[in-house]
Structure formats: structure tokens, C-alpha cells
Design a protein that fits this description.
single chain, 112 residues, mainly beta, 7-stranded mixed sheet, 11 strands
Length: 112
Amino acid sequence: EVQLVESGGGSVQPGGSLRLSCAASGFIFSDYAMSWVRLAPGKGLEWVSSIKAIDGTTSYTDSVRGRFTISRDNAKNMLYLQMNSLKPEDTAVYYCAKRDFRGQGIQVTVSS
């Protein structure tokens, strides 16, 4: 059974940082590209970032490029998202995703 479990969310002031983690199980993690997506209040699901399986090539949506960093540890079956210089518009539920499968999500709130 595929499982993706996110952790590391919370509340932070604008300009602050958070690091999200995603523990993957039930599949060969190193074989798959992985992504982070988010769902903000009143908006649709938004792709945030992806990382390829083998060479680790990364990609980002324009609004987070230069502030967020995606990474993975294939030996530990872990996916990460380092989020710096957070803005109120980053407030959302963040999901770890493998193709069309998502974890349960974790809340990130950026507010003063």
C-alpha cells in the first residue's frame, strides 16, 4: 500500500522558514519523480515543485522559485521542501505527491 506522510508544517510569521518532510512507503521511492502541491483557501490545487527520480533535476512554480528548495533522500525514502522567506500567500495545505496519489496534507500558515 502506497503511503505518503507529511510533517513539519505549522504557523510562521512572514519572512520565516519551515521545512516540510514526507515519509514514503509501499513503493520503490527511487524509481519515481516526486512533487509538492498545495491547496490554498478558495483556490484550486496548485503544483509547487517537482524532483526527478535519478538525477534529481528540480522544477518550481514561478511564485516560489528562489525561496523554496525541494530535495530527496532515496536511501531514507524521504522528500523535503525547505521554504524560506515565506509570504502570507504561501498559506495552504501542502501535499506530498507521487503522480496522482497524495498524502493527507499538512497545514502551513503564514501570518503576522
